[in-house]
Amino acid sequence: TRHLSEGCRSRKKRLAEVPIEFVRALNELGLSNASSLYGNPLTGGVSSDIWCIETEKGFVCAKRALAKLRVAADWYAPVERNLFEARWLQVAHKALAGCAPELLGQHPELGVLVMQYLDPVHYRLWKQELLAGNADAHTANAMGQVLSKIHSYAAKNSQLAREFPTDKIFFEIRLAPYLLATAERHPKLAHALEALVLQTQNNAKTLVHGDVSPKNILLRQQGPVLLDAECATWSDPAFDLAFCLNHLLLKCLWTPSSSSDFLHCFEVLTNSYLPSVGWELPTDLEARAARLLPGLLLARVDGKSPVEYVTEAHQREHVRRVASALLIKPASHLHEIANAWAKDLNT
To answer: For residues 223 and 123, what is the distance between their CA atoms, to the nearest angstrom?
Structure first.
């Protein structure tokens, strides 16, 4: 989904009438008493209807999960994921206050999640910063710390696993459309990609966000803010780490002039995250992330959710060439992935 505060930049902007499901949800959650509400729909997301809504107490952001995602391929996902996103928000705040929007309410029957409005005057979208070539090492360092603090907190509170019985949702919205769909396109790599699914399922150690992407990360002076935890599940933390690092590699194709800075951020984020791993050996987690990362790379050109900015044939071939080699001969360390990526970029 897009930056949750986009579309509410000004009260002067013409507001549209909000769908009745959102009105009813806000009323029954005690967040409004109005019979009709007005706001702006946020376009661009594939998994939810999202509205910025003006209430009697100010703007809020509300989202409702879609059963069929807005992508070219047939991609369906259970709508109850909305409830688990609400639970993730609560856990994240306990782990590190302010690292996610404040949860204002969740309506299980209607599948509507309501959270605080984040004013874009004070928050910048990391994806847009990277597009502009602003690959800031301080941001990468802070992101590694935020991720490790959430993982560490949850790993120490293993009873949380019972609150996230979401294996099926995670499989349907992440593992199948990314790794298994890619395996269908690459029969010679199918065994390796299927093994990554099993690796992820067999190393459930903490609460995973599932979509740690620059499009879901807002930047502010106090540190990054994570959005859109629809994929939240009790699973392998290596997935979150690899998922985020994957985007730093792919941004080299989007803004080539900043490739060295993106690769430096890759190194900084890795070195920020791994020393804080206390629930298992950091080397074990890194090895799983290093095996998973090439599969995620390949998935972003040949899975059900290709990144929109890898448009040239030579770019896609670069991804396929590097990812295929690393799937056939896996690396144990993340810097090996970055080195292979950089070497192929320069040839």
So the answer is: 10
Total residues found in the chain within this entry: 347
Q: How far apart are CA 245 and CA 334, in angstroms?
A: 9
pLDDT in tens, 247-272: 999 999 999 999 999 999 999 999 99
Question: What single letter denotes the amino acid at residue 241?
Answer: L
Per-residue pLDDT averaged across 177-202, rounded?
98
**Angstrom distance (rounded) from CA 285 to CA 208:** 13
Other C-beta atoms within 10 Å of 132: how many? Answer: 10
Whole-angstrom Cα distance, residue 189 to residue 325?
10
Dihedral Cα 243, 147, 144, 301, nearest 10 deg: 10
pLDDT at position 13 is 56
With helix as H, strand as E and coil as C, how does the chain read?
CCCCCCCCCCCCCCCEECCHHHHHHHHHCCCCCCCCCEEEEECCCCCEEEEEEEECCEEEEEEEECCECCCCCCCECCCCHHHHHHHHHHHHHHHCCCCCCCEEEEECCCCEEEEECCCCCCCEEHHHHHHCCCCCHHHHHHHHHHHHHHHHHHHCCHHHHHHCCCHHHHHHHHHHHHHHHHHHHCHHHHHHHHHHHHHHHCCCCEEECCCCCHHHEEECCCCCEECCCCCCEEECHHHHHHHHHHHHHHHHHHCHHHHHHHHHHHHHHHHHHHHHCCCCCHHHHHHHHHHHHHHHHHHHHHCCCCCCCCCCHHHHHHHHHHHHHHHHCCCCCHHHHHHHHHHHHCC
Please state, in angstroms and rounded to a whole number, the distance separating the CA atoms of residues 138 and 124: 15
- Span of 88-97, 111-120, 130-139, 249-258 with lowest mean pLDDT: 111-120
Inform me whether the pLDDT recorded for 331 exceeds 90: yes
The whole-angstrom separation of Cα 86 and Cα 98 is: 15
Task: Give me the pLDDT at residue 119, please.
Answer: 81
φ, ψ of residue 135 to 5 degrees: the values are -95, 90
